[in-house]
Structures are given as C-alpha cells and as structure tokens.
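Progress narrative, work stream C.
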Amino acid sequence: MPEAFTMKEMMEQFQVSEDALRYYEKIDLLPPVARKNNGHRIYNQSHKEALLMIHCLKKTGMSLQELKPIIKLQLDENTSTNSEWRERLGAYQKKIELQQQALQQITDMIKMKLQTGQKFGEHSPVQPQIQSIFKP
C-alpha cells in the first residue's frame, strides 16, 4: 500500500497553508486527491513531488499561471507530452541560469565595494576590476 500523508503533514513539510493546498487542488496543480470515508484528504508521493516542484518554481519568481502548464504536462500520463514538458522546463532552467549569472555579477560588485571601501567617482587600481564584472 502506498504511503499516505495528511494535510497537516503536507502543510508542515512544504510550508503552505491549508487554503493553498485546497487552491492548488482546485486549479489542478495537484493530482486528484483521494479522501477517507470522513472526507479528510489523503495525499501520496505524487502530491509531494508536485508540491516540491511548485515550491521550487515559486521560489524562482514563477507565478502559478506560468507554472501551471509545466505542472499539468508533468501530471499528464500521455507520453507525447514529455517533449513539450522537457522543452518548457529546459527553457525555464536557462532563464534561471541567466538570473544566477546576473546575481553573481551583483554579488561580485558588492564584494569588491566592501573590500576596497571605494566610493562613487573615486578612481583606484580596482576600478577596472569593477567594470570587468559587468562585461557582457
């Protein structure tokens, strides 16, 4: 028998509210959720994997509207959607990698300023290093 998880367990593990879980279910971001005889939801490993993907993609700034097609393709059992899912997720991975590069440039500039104490307009031997951080 597959492992079952309660709503409370899912809320704690993924730091989401009860309302958020219900909303994700309502807008089909989660696989169909089984219920016990008393109406309580029963989550499984597929729900955990979907929530992990939602959680990770939201952290990158992706909206639910943007992430919905990716999640829906992942939930689709039709193997013909695999290439579209890979294409969408791969494109988003490239976008995240570009964001990482931009954040690294910002980090490098801040580190340089902190190390040198250089203020705006001051010229020092470090000036070319700061400019080199932002070459395309």
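Work stream C, second folded protein:
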Amino acid sequence: MKDVQKFVGLDVSKDTIAVAIVGAGKAAPFINLLPVWTVIFGVFLLHEQVSLMSLLVGIVTIAGAVLASL
C-alpha cells in the first residue's frame, strides 16, 4: 500500500487502491451497493425498519452488481 501511495504521490483511499488492483471495469458495478450498505448499517446500528420495497430494491441492486461483474 505504501508503494502505491509513493507512486501516486498522494494519500489515496483504500477504494482507489482496490480499483487500481482489480480494475475499473470490475469495480464499477459495486459502487451501486453503497445505498444497500447504508440501509444495512442503518438497520443494525440505528435500529431502522426496512420496508418491503427497500428490501426488494436491495436484492435487485445486489443481483445487478453481481451480473454486471461476470
């Protein structure tokens, strides 16, 4: 990780390093999972309730990210 930071010359995030390793084509579909993680953390940390529509949209989003990365 330090080698990548020295190469770039900046303090880069772990996401940037992951994209550099895996490639943008494989990493791009998973940016759509950020709202899904937000809901998951909201349920566990803030005790939020999830509606049926949110659950279905989360499943479709996960399936889309998996299909797009194949």
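The mean pLDDT is 79. No further action is required on this item.
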